[in-house]
Amino acid sequence: MISRNLIHVSNAPLGLQEFRLRLYLIPLGLTLSLLTGCSMFTNSSPIEERMSALEVQHDLTVDRFAVKVSVDKSTIKVVSLNLAHGRKENFSQFLVSESKTRENLAEIAEFLKRENADIVTLQEADKPSRWSGKFDHVEFLAREAGYPWYTHASHNNNWIANHGTAVLSSLPIARGYGFDFNPTPPSTRKGFTLAEIELNPGNSDENKITVDVISVHLDFLSRSSRIEQIKDMRKVLDDRSNPVIVVGDFNSGWTKSDRDFQDFANNRNLKAHLPGANHLNTYSDTRIDWILISEEFTFCQYYNAAEILSDHLAVISEIKLKNAKSNPGECGDGRLIKKIAKTNSQSVRL
Question: What's the pLDDT score for residue 23?
Fold first, then answer.
């Protein structure tokens, strides 16, 4: 909601960082909670009441900019970005005009076209909201970047703000689901979007698989809230059997203080790329945006974008189905995919 870049905590231990953030943001959050109608006394709801089916948008008129898209592939490219409500690096979206917000999102759309990812996951993604230009940011990006499929969950909807998480795809989305975590005042409510995306390596019915792609946003103020949110996500995944890619802003690092995040990944057999690396930070000097993959996949490429599109860096990865035959030019066909290395991106090869 408010850019945390203005709060200097980078050299402090994580516990002290969290304390300083609370000291600064709790009074602000209390005020915003009143403005946005967020109840400080909202009761928790059962997990089954907080998951709902979403409408999947499919626009056949979307122009994929002459890029041939086929479900007959074993490698998929994924991009994740916290949109920061379209404000880029500004202090607050309240202070950004609609025209500037559209300009910022148009820049993101151009980036997505250059990357030509199959799947894009978004956090802090707004539906029409008074505080961010009164237009649908996800619809704008899908149209401008050429994604015919998308689904979008709102986790915080009130008179001034309406935002959540989303998945855009060039591959068919069979179904979409939205899950709301329990409220965690004074921070705004978080959750995740789950999109069932169809892959068909080999272009035959017997090879067709459905992959669960999750775009998630966890609370940034409270570790105890994140622990409960991770438990919720794990319960949902425990009832599903599809290969899974869990992507988003976890507000957690691969550190002792965030052991719950590591336990979630390990217990679900989800792999992170070079979790101990110090060159993949996504927010200031921390790495809190992640792509996690189930055992059916392997990482081929993984890097952060160099472009400043938000207060977070975008994360990009090419992921391959382990047992699928590789098409020419795909990861695993015996050749490096040289086109992935761009002069404006930081590429990390396996």
Answer: 43
Residue of 319, 326, 259, 332 whose CA lies nearest to 292 = 319
Contact 139, 147 (CB under 8 A): no
Number of alpha carbons in the 13 Å side-chain half-sphere of residue 1 = 23
Phi, psi (deg, nearest 5) at residue 170 = -90, -10
Chain CA centroid to CA 214, Å? 8
Residue pointed to by tokens 């899974």? 244
Model confidence pLDDT, tens digit, residues 174-185: 999 999 999 999
Q: What does the alpha-carbon distance between residue 79 and residue 64 come to, in Å, rounded to a whole number? A: 16
Distance, CA of 238 to CA of 350 (rounded, Å) = 30
What's the residue count for the chain? 350
pLDDT higher than threshold 90 for residue 242: yes
Domain boundaries, the chain: 4-40+47-349
Record the tokens describing residue 223, joined without a space: 């570790």
What pLDDT score does 11 carry? 38
Q: Which helix (H) or strand (E) holds 102?
A: helix 98-115
φ and ψ of 22, to 5 deg = -65, -45
Asked whether 186 and 225 are in contact (CB, 8 A), the reply is no
Q: Could you tell me the CA-to-CA distances from 79 to 52, 190, 313, 350 in Å, in that order?
A: 25, 20, 10, 18
Q: Please state, in angstroms and as integers, the Cα–Cα distance from residue 67 to each residue in 64, 113, 114, 145, 199, following that order.
A: 6, 10, 11, 12, 18
Strands annotated E in 254-331: 271-272, 289-293, 297-305, 315-321
Domain 4-40+47-349 has CATH 3.20.20.70: no
Positive or negative, the Cα torsion across 225, 284, 310, 174?
Answer: negative
The pTM (predicted TM-score) of the whole model is 0.84
Mean pLDDT of the chain: 84
Structure tokens at 134: 């009164």
Q: Are strands 209-217 and 244-249 parallel, antiparallel or unpaired?
A: parallel
Q: Would you list the DSSP string of 130-146?
A: GGGTSS-HHHHHHHHHT
Look at residues 289, 319, 131 and name the one whose alpha carbon lies nearest to residue 215: 289
